[in-house]
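just leaving the lab so this will be short. below you get a single protein, a line of residues and a line of whole numbers that encode the local backbone shape. id like you to explain what the token line says about the fold, in plain words if possible. thanks a lot i owe you, the record is right below:

…
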Amino acid sequence: MTDPLASLLGALDLTDTGARTSEDIFTGPSEWSPTKRVFGGQVLAQSLMAAARTTTADRTVHSMHGYFLRPGNVELPITFSVDRIHDGRSFSTRRTQAYQQGLPILSMIASFQDDDPGLDHQAPIPEGIPDPEELPSATEVLGRVDHPVAQHWAHSRPFDMRHAPSPIYFQVEGEHVAHQAVWMRATGTLPDDPALHRAALAYASDYSILESIQRRHGISWMTPGLKMASLDHAMWFHRFARVDDWLLYVQESPSAQGGRGLALGRIYDRGGRLIASVAQEGMIRVPTAD
């Protein structure tokens, strides 16, 4: 079995092809998945790394907005084209398009800024959430389940995920509410590259955010006929934190309708600093009773 963290780092180590049109061109591998579809967080993270490769080191990403256009194929590499839309006095804007077989699978715009002083405030970290050491890991919950997806989630993800109050892999326990929290941490130590940590944070932010919609309606991942797909993903990076330290991902869904649901998230470090905010809309379809 491949080391999951090494697989993530390999996927984010993009190759500069040397090709140039009016854009910068990079290529990257696809991580294996039992679903045969590329994990959306992987393409987000790679697109962000591609954009970061075209900016100066003193400018870091502060926001990104992406649309998932087509499912990716894990058997194929991905090509990333970066358009240097604008470089101003304080901000740089980049557009990244991810392609397989000449067709775009994701389109993203990201903005980078140099380190400027300014106003500072944040929403406080929620109280009463158990520490990660008090909660079971996905490996402990899913490790003995004889199913390829369960085994993949248990052993092949580069992040340790721990749900509060409990995961919804098999059933939704307790009250059906539109919110939950997930502790997450990389399974090993990452290099001291701030851009890499931000890209890895974008990667992990796509894992569980739509679960707040599922929890509200009592829909576990085992629900027969359940179909879900991320439609878009927006993320704002407020403060830096390492992803190989524990981070708390607080998630809620304000609305679901028309076969779609909106989920919002806030990511805190263990000291209570707000690291990032996330918004994602997803398609979610459940067969009717008849």
About this structure: The chain has a mean pLDDT of 94. The two ends are 42 Å apart (CA to CA). The CA atoms of residues 90 and 116 lie 8 Å apart.
